[in-house]
Amino acid sequence: MSFYLTTPIYYVNAEPHLGHAYTSIVTDVVCRYQRMLGEEVWLQTGTDEHGDKVVQAAKAAGMSPREYTDKISALFRETWPLLDIEADFFIRTTDQRHVEVVQRILTKVYEQGDIYFSEYSGLYCQGCERFLTEKELVEGKCPDHLVEPTQVSEKNYFFRMSKYQDWLIDHIQKHPEFITPERYRNEVLSFLKEPLEDLCISRPVSRLTWGIPLPFDPGFVTYVWFDALINYLSGIGYPDEPQFYKFWPAAEHLIAKDILKPHAVYWPTMLRSMGVEPFRKLHVHGYWRVNETKMSKSIGNVVHPQDLVQEYGSDAVRYFLLREMTFGLDASFGTETLKARKNSDLANDLGNLLSRSLTMLEKFSDGCIPAPGPLSEQDKELKAAALAMMAEYRTHMDAFAFNRALQAVWEVISRANKYIVTNAPWELAKNPAAAETLATVLYCLFEVLRLVVVTLVPIMPAAAKKMQGLLGLTGAVDFHRAAQWGLFKPGTAIGKPIALFPRMGEKEGKRVTAGVSDPVPPGSRLS
Ligand code: MSP
Question: pTM value?
Fold first, then answer.
């Protein structure tokens, strides 16, 4: 079966930050998880490069839009591997193939009468790159950019979105999982209770040239959403490449709540108009705030993923972000909590379980997995807990409840640590009559470790790979096969003890302050 998951394509007027990193990490985790389940996966990400804001940012940097977009797009592309995010395709809206697909779709929709020319007058927010309704304003200002929108009146092209309103409501009602979590589905349904307006999809070239020209009127370029959303199709070879047929029926999008409306309303109606099946699911997450404050360039608290990786390592960053945020809700980021989690969950709980187990195996079993005897009640309990963890993990991962999946894994890790203490293998080793019990205890411990490693493959790919190496496990993990008890063959040689997750000291982790007073050093970023 196929599985296609996308990140939003990020605007190139800002450098990659924590928010972009979170979405891209979740996308990568889900794709790795699906691969482990045996699916054929396509992960697509990229950059959104047209529009007023990009022209302004390029000007401010003293570059042409082309030079500027090349530079920032490359910065995004280079950042993701640092976080072990592996994309199958990185799309840019300035790619020739994308431009052609957008024009082809525009022609189709225009020819069938769903695009018309009309005068429009409204309140335009430069930051949002769209007209706002009176209702959206807070004290006369755009709630996102805190500036008063300007009254703009001009002739433009419009997409007949209103025509598809009833169809969209019906589709959302018939497919409860189309928009998840449910709070966002409800938000969209309540928005759709009001009559839907048509969507302005162009800008005159007198005002903006950095865009895709409308194929039916060279005096206009495409407005940002009719360009950007189409990346999800152009990247997989719409309309006739095999990739498109393979992956489109399995398309799922991952976004934050800021771009819910374009994805939940504009996009499905656009697809309907062009005669393409709707995507399968839209997954919506909340916002990361930094120390309880909105992350913003002007406040100076923007957290850059490159700095985090340098300071804490990719595995810890990925683990932390997934463990701390309840998917769908907002969360607060702080480097103190990140450090604390790294020390307690990774160094203490997981790191200790691993290094103690490796040390004991080396000492008491020549570094090889022993043949177990019959399981005692305690062994059976540990085994049952580990198998239950695998089932729970699947349920939670399928539901994007990453924090709960990790909680389930960490419960078993601490149970296994307690199991070591209660069984005291070092005592058993003193008594030759207890040799079989000792072998069984060690066997059970390594089975638990093996199962824990399976769960961590999507979450912490680098650490999981090292752990797999230590446990003598090679090749890609097949979850269905690996999630069973008793797969370790007695006699398997295991690696030497190592400290995979060293504790961070008092002074470490201070460089990434995520605060106002002590700005983040530029590092490899664009400064
Ligand atoms: N270019 C559009 C998307 C077009 S998709 C067809 C865009 N770009 S963006 O650079 O502004 O990225 C927005 C996305 O970045 C959010 O939907 C989310 O994925 C991520 N985040 C940006 N800030 C965020 C937080 N503070 N917290 C969590 N995610 C955030 O919109």
Answer: 0.94
Instruction: Kindly state if the Cβ of 99 falls inside 6 Å of ligand 1.
Output: no
The domain in which residue 117 lies consists of 2-332
CA 149 – ligand 1 centroid, Å? 21
- Does residue 287 line the site of ligand 1, with CB under 6 A? yes
Co-location of 362 and 435 in the same domain: yes
Protein residue closest via CA to atom 25 of ligand 1: 19
Q: Which atom of ligand 1 is nearest to the CA of 232?
A: 6
* Distance between CA atoms of residues 36 and 470, nearest Å: 20
Residue 158 in contact with ligand 1 by CB distance below 6 A: no
Distance CA 285, CA 254 (A): 8
Q: How many domains does the chain have?
A: 2
Is the residue at 512 inside a domain?
no
Partners of residue 131 on adjacent β-strands: 124
Report the half-sphere exposure of 78 (CA within 13 A, side-chain side). Answer: 11
Which ligand 1 atom is nearest residue 14's CA? 10
Give the whole-angstrom CA distance, residue 87 versus residue 125.
33
Active site residue 145: yes
Domain assignment present for 517:
no
Rounded to whole angstroms, how far apart are CA atoms 37 and 397? 11
For 192, 344, 383, 412, 422, the CA distances from 419, given in Å and listed in that order, are 55, 18, 11, 10, 5
Residue-level pLDDT, tens digit, the chain, 527 residues: 999 999 999 999 889 999 999 999 999 999 999 999 999 999 999 999 999 889 999 999 999 999 999 999 999 999 999 999 999 999 999 999 999 999 999 999 999 999 999 998 889 888 876 778 888 899 999 998 899 999 988 899 999 999 999 999 999 999 999 999 999 999 999 999 999 999 999 999 988 999 999 999 999 999 889 999 999 999 999 999 999 999 999 999 999 999 999 999 999 999 999 999 999 999 999 999 998 889 888 888 999 999 999 999 999 999 999 999 999 999 999 999 999 999 999 999 999 999 999 999 999 999 999 999 999 999 999 999 999 999 999 999 999 999 999 999 999 999 999 999 999 999 999 999 999 999 999 999 999 999 999 999 999 999 999 999 999 998 899 999 999 999 999 999 999 998 899 899 867 776 665 543 333 333 334 33
Query: In angstroms, what is the span from residue 256 Cα to ligand 1's centroid?
Result: 6
480 is catalytic: no
Decide: 520 and 303 in contact? Cβ < 8 Å: yes
**Residue 444 appears among annotated catalytic residues:** no
Whether 157 is covered by a domain: the verdict is yes
Residue of 41, 459, 431 lying closest to 247 (CA atoms): 41
Does the beta carbon of 8 sit less than 6 angstroms from any atom of ligand 1? yes
* Ligand 1 atom 8 nearest Cα: 10
Phi, psi of 70 (to 5 degrees): -60, -40
Among 439, 437, 454, 449, CA closest to 491: 439
Same domain, 130 and 229: yes
